[in-house]
Design brief:
Layout lengths: L3 H6 L24 H38 L6 H11 L1 H4 L3 E8 L1 E2 L3 H10 L15 E2 L4 E3 L17 H13 L3 E2 L16 E9 L8 H7 E10 H7 L11 E3 L9 E4 L11
Antiparallel strand pairs: 1-4, 1-7, 2-3, 5-6, 6-7, 8-9
Length: 274
């Protein structure tokens, strides 16, 4: 797809694949206004795509800023992370963003120590979930704002799920922001479930090289991630597309109910994970 997505941001996902026309002026087509309608449709479709690309580029730069926080110190505490995020005023400055998290890479040999450390920080019931023994874990250690549905994400092993793992791996190997495929967020705790996705950016060990793929794999220490609920993201764009177009957004290049992430004229959101 042209624009920032293809040039700088997403190598694994094109999530705008269909803009379905449902003009409220469609009746004009019966009176010889087909060309005018087509021109209007092209204009509004391009406007929507450009608006989304610009917003996602903003989130990409935001993630790079968060990564710089981790580069500024050998260890960032939960309080420091909270202070930094609070200063950014996420809800006001980044509408449509469900949360911003950090997940460290935890080898199985360090799992017990990791759990003990977090419990000693005041989270007596902390556990990496889903349960099970795995070679590597990337549990959500920090997430802001740490309120409401975001609390449920604490300790969730993003590496345990295939769609998230694919994005994490690609981000690590490329040293770029990578968006996951369609998924259902851990934060979905009520009946108004929305499709979601995450944008990952790797964090490497301070002072260690990461110019090559081998160096990146050896020296990655975690990932920062922006979390999005699709309906909230589109509402946060503040663009009145619904008055002119029925908008559908799909994950990938296949138009199907399974891949549908957002539909502007629907009262619900399709959430079947890939």
């Amino acid at each position: 797809m042209p624009g920032l997505f293809s040039r700088h941001l997403l190598t694994g996902l094109i999530f705008i694949t269909s803009l379905c026309v449902s003009y409220f002026l469609w009746s004009y087509a019966q009176h010889g206004n087909d060309q005018e309608l087509q021109a209007n449709f092209n204009f509004h479709a391009h406007e929507i795509i450009e608006h989304i690309e610009q917003r996602m580029a903003t989130y990409q730069q935001f993630l790079h800023g968060v990564r710089a926080l981790f580069a500024s110190s050998e260890e960032i505490t939960r309080e420091e992370f909270n202070t930094y995020m609070s200063s950014l005023r996420l809800e006001q400055q980044y509408p449509g963003l469900q949360g911003l998290g950090y997940s460290p890479l935890v080898p199985h040999a360090q799992k017990a120590r990791h759990i003990a450390e977090i419990r000693n920080q005041g989270f007596a019931d902390y556990q990496i979930h889903p349960a099970g023994n795995r070679e590597l874990y990337t549990p959500v250690l920090f997430i802001e704002p740490f309120i409401g549905r975001n609390v449920k994400a604490l300790g969730y092993d993003t590496y345990s799920e295939a769609v998230r793992r694919a994005a994490i791996t690609q981000a690590r190997d490329s040293d770029r922001a990578v968006v996951s495929g369609k998924l259902t967020l851990v934060q979905e705790v009520d009946e108004q479930v929305q499709a979601g996705f995450l944008m990952f950016l790797p964090v490497y060990k301070n002072g260690m090289p990461h110019a090559t793929q081998d160096q990146r794999r050896a020296n990655v220490k975690g990932w920062v991630a922006a979390v999005f609920r699709m309906g909230d993201l589109m509402a946060g764009l503040g663009h009145d597309h619904s008055a002119k177009l029925d908008l559908k957004i799909y994950d990938g290049d296949e138009i199907s109910d399974q891949n549908l992430m957002y539909e502007s004229d629907s009262s619900h959101f399709n959430t079947s994970a890939k």
